[in-house]
Write a structure and sequence with these properties.
Number of strands: 6
Structural class: alpha/beta
Shape: extended
Helix content: 40-55%
Number of helices: 14
């Protein structure tokens, strides 16, 4: 089917063949940007469900160099980066994206599978990376048996994402079956209001001022009570000889200096060990992804926690176990491939 100049449709003959090519690069830049937005949008319907995972078809980026330069920033800047776990988001943003690519990301969503993901080290590192990127929209899907008191009373959920405030848009999906639908709406409304409100120091200043005022009032009351008590007590006779002054014990300041220097040295050594272990853990994770990541996923998560806490002994044990498992898996893959290769015959 084709369309005439007056807008009516007509059926073309079967032997119709298009001649020439469409001058795409001669279109205005604004029109090309809109086409790039449609072409590089996530495939599928809109994210009406918390289980929807989209994908991006990047075939247009391989057309020519000019189109690649014009459209290579569109997938990161227009789409929502949806991660099924915090460890995947931390690996993608912290390891795969370069610094200039992180500045393009504006919309992020992450799924949290209960308290295991909420209190994980990967989520803390993921939020720390996002706080330096200045994102506009952030979404969270919380699943698992979590009650409403954890959301509303303890403020633990808001504290996890305090570094991202203020956000232009904050989306929250609660998949817990223990909370009623009406209560979910109230919780989501309150958390959205908090996350989109800029941080203000007024509440802190007021708290400090009120605390200082209370301390001043209490000190005044104590002074007045002491003065009244002193007026009621009769004056004692002044002793004839003044009391002898006790000699002052010299304070060894060098001891505190040595202790402070020793503590600073220990902290610097711990920071150096932590940095080295995190680099090793990143290399180990890349090696695991090249062979079989699912086989050692749990041990890699524990190794990451040990590296974050600078626990070198625990990390070395876990990394040795992971490397041994991956080497055995690699040997199995190589042997299976050798069995599939046909043997050559000499004539």
């Amino acid at each position: 089917m084709s369309r005439n100049s007056d807008g009516t449709l007509f059926e073309m003959d079967g032997d119709y063949e298009r001649k020439g090519f469409f001058p795409f690069l001669k279109l205005p830049g604004e029109v090309r940007d809109k086409i790039y937005g449609f072409a590089l949008a996530q495939a599928g319907e809109l994210r009406t469900s918390k289980y929807f995972k989209g994908k991006v078809d990047t075939a247009i980026l391989f057309t020519c160099r000019q189109i690649n330069r014009e459209a290579r920033c569109v997938p990161l800047s227009t789409n929502i980066l949806w991660f099924s776990a915090p460890i995947y988001g931390q690996y993608f943003i912290g390891s795969l994206l370069q610094i200039h690519q992180r500045e393009l990301v504006k919309r992020v969503h992450v799924d949290l599978q209960g308290f295991e993901d909420i209190y994980s080290v990967a989520l803390r590192l993921f939020i720390k990376d996002l706080a330096m990127m200045n994102i506009d929209e952030f979404g969270v899907t919380v699943m698992g048996r979590i009650d409403k008191d954890w959301f509303s009373a303890h403020k633990c959920f808001e504290g996890k994402f305090e570094q991202l405030r203020p956000l232009k848009t904050f989306n929250l999906v609660i998949g817990s079956g223990t909370i009623k639908k009406a209560e979910k709406k109230l919780i989501i409304r309150d958390i959205k209001k908090t996350m989109t409100t800029p941080k203000s120091s007024n509440s802190t200043d007021n708290a400090i001022t009120s605390t200082t005022t209370l301390k001043r009032k209490s000190s005044n009351l104590k002074e007045s009570a002491h003065s009244d008590k002193a007026n009621k007590i009769t004056k004692l006779p002044i002793p004839s000889s003044p009391p002898q002054k006790q000699p002052k014990v010299p304070v060894d300041s060098s001891y505190y200096t040595r202790e402070r220097a020793k503590q600073q040295q220990q902290e610097s050594e711990k920071a150096a060990i932590r940095t080295t272990l995190l680099v090793k853990c990143n290399t180990l994770e890349n090696y695991a992804r090249s062979i079989d990541y699912a086989l050692v996923k749990i041990r890699l998560g524990r190794a990451l926690e040990a590296a974050e806490e600078a626990d070198q002994n625990v990390y070395e044990d876990l990394s040795a176990s992971v490397v041994e498992t991956l080497d055995e898996r690699l040997a199995t893959i190589i042997s299976s491939r050798d069995m599939l290769v046909p043997k050559s015959h000499s004539f």
